[in-house]
Design a protein that fits this description.
alpha/beta, 5-stranded mixed β-sheet, globular
Length: 292
């Protein structure tokens, strides 16, 4: 089952409840009501409330804290969360540099959902982390809108071609905040991050990640040595593209598919940009008035 952005919440909820009976309308309402007086938050859709409740294993208090933290990071890194446009030049550049692929085999049920990434072009001059972060943010919103919730998100990254020239471009401040966002602000359940062909360049990145990430996030990162095929001890071959030994189509096919799907819902991102930008301006105005 897939949804469109226009799918009514009543229909969305009914199908999500068939996957997770723990998702109740009453709990979603309680979560909404617990935050209705918080003027620092932007308008939040019922579908997004549902996602947060699911990501927090149906714990209303934890979902409340996660929502607050999520939007705090939105406003701390507006260049990532408030400037999303799949037709922007930087996103097109990222699309041509990287393959970012939602693998299709598990999109029809609640099983783990796999996102696969690898280089198309290893030229470090074409690679930008900021556009990558924006691309992944759009994917996260897209997958919830189109496929709803699932048991866990699994990210597989083939680092073949990664070099120190890519690593020196890391914006340390933004990257550190993004890692904290992964820890405390996600509206999805991040299950694991598998890193394929993990060589010396990967170890350089892991030294930085270790500085910022907590133990829970670090335990989700699994490194696979260069040339190893032990990824298939975790993920079946039909859930990965042919370039890494899977039985799926080429990564370029899935990259094109996701990119075009993001463009199809561009209006959703542009509307979200406006809502978040207006809310950020309001919050800053209130802070300025309190400082007077």
């Amino acid at each position: 089952m897939t949804y469109s952005p226009l799918t009514p919440f009543s229909e969305y909820l009914q199908i999500e409840q068939s996957k997770y009976p723990e998702l109740t309308f009453d709990d979603i309402q309680k979560l909404k009501e617990s935050l209705e007086d918080d003027q620092t938050l932007p308008p939040i859709s019922d579908k997004k409330y549902l996602a947060f409740l699911h990501s927090c294993n149906f714990d209303i208090e934890l979902a409340k804290k996660t929502i607050k933290r999520c939007y705090q990071f939105h406003f701390r890194i507006p260049q990532v969360f408030c400037e999303l446009d799949p037709l922007a030049d930087d996103i097109e550049l990222s699309y041509n540099c990287l393959s970012i692929c939602q693998m299709p085999t598990v999109n029809t049920d609640k099983n783990d959902r796999v996102l696969f990434m690898m280089f198309q072009d290893t030229n470090h001059e074409l690679f930008e982390y900021l556009s990558l972060f924006k691309y992944l943010t759009m994917w996260m919103n897209y997958t919830l809108l189109k496929y709803g919730t699932c048991d866990g998100m699994v990210i597989v990254i083939d680092t073949k071609g990664l070099s120190w020239r890519h690593i020196v471009k890391i914006p340390i401040g933004i990257a550190g905040k993004m890692l904290k966002f992964l820890e405390v602000g996600l509206p999805v359940r991040l299950k694991a991050v598998h890193v394929l062909n993990a060589g010396s360049a990967t170890q350089m990145i892991m030294k930085m990640v270790t500085r910022f990430a907590n133990q829970e996030l670090l335990e989700k990162i699994i490194l696979h040595p260069v040339g190893s095929d032990d990824i298939f001890n975790y993920i079946s071959r039909n859930e990965l593209p042919e370039e890494v030994g899977g039985s799926g189509k080429s990564h370029t096919f899935f990259n094109d598919e996701l990119y075009n799907d993001l463009i199809d819902i561009r209006d959703v991102f542009l509307e979200q940009n406006e809502v978040l930008t207006n809310q950020m301006a309001y919050v800053n105005q209130q802070l300025d008035q309190n400082d007077e």
